[in-house]
Amino acid sequence: KNEVEQSPQNLTAQEGEFITINCSYSVGISALHWLQQHPGGGIVSLFMLSSGKKKHGRLIATINIQEKHSSLHITASHPRDSAVYICAVLSNFGNEKLTFGTGTRLTIIP
Amino acid sequence: DGGITQSPKYLFRKEGQNVTLSCEQNLNHDAMYWYRQDPGQGLRLIYYSQIVNDFQKGDIAEGYSVSREKKESFPLTVTSAQKNPTAFYLCASRRRGAIQNIQYFGAGTRLSVL
């Protein structure tokens, strides 16, 4: 079993729909990252969470430390949101290493 | 602009050949990382370096080598011992010292075997 599991693996939605991507992890963590990978392969960091909720534009990320679960929400989705979204956790062992989920491929249809 | 530059974007390797992937950053970050990405799998850590002239093996270091002679540079060599080198390789860097310091990624190098 992977330490970081994401669901769904693939998601196709119509423009304007509310999107939820889930991430569950099985290890103790000090922080959780949501990353976005565009078709060309480059990766950008969207959020870093250690508790609660963060919002940036149409993106919202939440984390429940007790349940070892995080969600990434996209409101009013747009075709330019089409990308692979990756969850990664920073362990609390102090080695500053990230463990990555396999990603969720999101396609927004106009 | 500050950032991470990986080159080349595409690279082809012949059987028995060593190839080197370049990673340069001008962010003044102490830590640098090399990851490998295969279809259907999460990024896996190959090597990382927390400081100049020091580096550690990650989860899949066999068949790879690195050096960290300068703070801004962390080249990765894929040796002939790596029997399945075809993958997408990503370099990253971060400022050490706080968990809030995120990793910044390069655009990646796609390596294929001829």
Structure report:
The complex is a heterodimer of chains A (110) and B (114). Chain A has strands at 4-7, 10-14, 19-25, 29-37, 43-49, 52-56, 59-64, 69-74, 83-91, 98-100, 104-109. By secondary structure, chain A is mainly beta. In chain A, strands 2, 4, 5, 9, 10 and 11 form a six-stranded mixed beta sheet that branches. Chain A is globular. Chain A starts with a strand and ends with a strand. In chain A, 33% of the residues are buried. With 114 residues, chain B is an all-beta fold. Chain B is 0% helix and 48% strand. In chain B, a hairpin with a 6-residue loop joins strand 4 (31-37) and strand 5. Chain B has no helices and eleven strands. Classes of the chains: A mainly beta (110), B mainly beta (114). The interface between A and B is medium-sized, with 25 and 25 residues.
